Amino acid sequence: MSVVQNPLVIVRSTEARGNLRRFLVKLRLDLSTEEAQAFLAFRRFFGRPVPAEFEALQTPTSADFALVRRRIELRHNSPDPATLLQLLRARIRSAPEN
Question: Could you give phi then psi for residue 64, rounded to 5 degrees?
Answer without folding.
Answer: -60, -45
